[in-house]
Amino acid sequence: MMFRNAISSLLVILAAQAAAPYVMAIDACQPVYTALTKIITTPSHSYSTQTAPLVNGQQRTVETIYVQGKTYMLARGKWMVSPATPNDVLQQELENEKQGTSTCQFVRNESVNGEAAAVYSMRRETDIAKENGLIWISKTSGLALREEVDMDYGGSLGKMHLIARYEYSNVKPPM
């Protein structure tokens, strides 16, 4: 009986060790997923610079505001309501989480505009794209403060480089 208990305990330990890298990957990505979700579910204003073949490799600045159940984008100097609601964007993010494969790792501690942040690396591959980047997450609020990502969409869409910063105070719909 004692021998059977020892064998059972050993099997449980071995199974846990075999699953440990998978569990660690999920756990390491949880702060990243939570921060990405908060960009969409918390009133936020993002300022980003994108470099992509679709704009002949030129840098394009983009501003996005998520507030009051709507997504606003600044395009060609004019604010417009996006047909993609924050809920649509969130559902796509959740689908990417579920269907893709991701690995995340804590990299270092840093400060963003005087706020303590944890920097994580994230690699994610979905049917749509391969992403590789860094995200700075506030240690107090868990909100994303900054992001730098390379995305490869393949084909004619090619690769894109994105640098973004996020603000959360006094976010209102644009005039």
Notes on the structure:
The protein has 175 residues and is an alpha+beta fold. It has one domain (25-167): Lipoprotein localisation LolA/LolB/LppX (outer membrane lipoprotein receptor (LolB), chain A). Helices cover 31% and strands 44% of the residues. It has two helices and nine strands. The protein has helices at residues 2-41, 86-99; strands spanning 44-51, 59-67, 70-75, 78-81, 101-112, 115-125, 130-138, 144-152, 159-167. It has a nine-stranded antiparallel beta sheet with strand order 4-3-2-1-9-8-7-6-5. Helix 1 packs antiparallel against helix 2 (86-99).
Summarize the model shown.
The protein is α+β, with helices and mostly antiparallel strands.
Features:
single chain, 175 residues, alpha+beta, outer membrane lipoprotein receptor (LolB), chain A, nine-stranded antiparallel beta sheet, 2 helices, 9 strands, disordered N terminus
The Rg value, from CA coordinates, equals 20 Å
Q: Helix content range of the residues, please?
A: 25-40%
Please provide the ordered H/E string of secondary-structure elements: HEEEEHEEEEE
Provide the domain count. Answer: 1
State the distance separating the first and last CA atoms: 75 Å
Spatially, the strands of the biggest sheet line up as 4-3-2-1-9-8-7-6-5
Kindly estimate the percentage of residues that lie in beta strands according to DSSP: 35-45%
Contiguous low-pLDDT stretches (5 residues minimum) are 1-26
Look up the CATH topology: outer membrane lipoprotein receptor (LolB), chain A
**Estimated structural class:** alpha+beta
- If you average the pLDDT, what whole number results? 79
